[in-house]
Input
Amino acid sequence: MTKCCDIWYNTHVQRTIRVKLTPSTAQAGLLAETSRLFTAAFNAVCRVGWEQQITNGVDLHHATYYPTQADYPALVSDLLVQARVKATEAVKSAFALQKAGRKVGMPQSDACPPRYNLHTYRVDWESQTVRMSTTGGRQTIRFAVPDYCTHYAGYPVDTADLIHRNGVWWLHVVVSVPAPAVEPTDEIVGVDLGIAQPAVTSTNRFLGKPAWKAIEGRRFYLKRQLQRKGTKSAKRHLRKMRGTQARFRRDCDHVLSKQIVQSASPGATIVLENLKDIRKRSKIRKQTKTSRRVHSWSFAQIKSFVQYKAEERGCTVAGVDPRHTSQACSCCGHTARNNRRSRGRFVCRVCGFELHADLNAARNIAAKYHASEGRSPAGGLPVNQPIVSVPVPRHQE
Output
């Protein structure tokens, strides 16, 4: 790891490969028993941490290791340690939310995925087998690597989580991949994320497909109608639709994040709005289409996808305060709510500058990052001035 210009750059990045396990019937039973006991140990440690107000991992280890070892002797000691590590993370997060005024209860899981490390599993990429600890000793299990991540196979492994979903066993293996040798550049790309227009960059690129919103809307209303109907066939249809919307949104977010990263040159800085707690800050009080779309907006997932895809391209991802980015003029800096005449049209009340509203917001996002970094925008203007913008022709909006 090296440090340059107050920014840390890792020499390696981590990626997760989801491999499909093909255990025998006996091995599947051992995996199920291991998962059940790991979940029980996790819940036991959470109970102690919650009741005794312990958030320190070392203190929680001293308070729970020997009791859990006596209660669950079939689990190897390292799996007990990993259960405690996961429980510590959950308890610490719960107390942090409680301190922030959120109503939370004691962390508890019905199926906590067992976490393996270098002491409890070993991957052989050539034979595509993994040897892992279970309640019945070490077992050698075959696996298959999906085509889309075969280029990650063969790299050193870190931890792995064992997951059982819809009758299939999966192992989410974390691998360490060398980071690209790319020198940082001065290019800054501001990105305005939205619902109607998925993403607009400060470099005049409109990304994503507006039709995604219509597809999700039709699927939502179909689910609503089936729920109202309540017949056996409707419930059967709902079961078939389970997860369809989440998979569709995840696919859209992958496509959008890839387009965002590819819109920036290697070594550039991609600037997004910090949309954390946007649902709390939203002033929408009635249950409308807009409120439903805001509450179902997967902006955190998009950001995480952009971050890990940007690492492979050698780009840096930064965040800025989203306030007034849609109301400020990217030409003169005048800020007023009525500058935005409609959802897609921005007209400054002072200088008359007109531009697509989302493109104007994207340029303001880039300008905010310029100011926060203490850099002078293009043209040598002071850092507290907006980036001078050139109106885009109508056919490019």
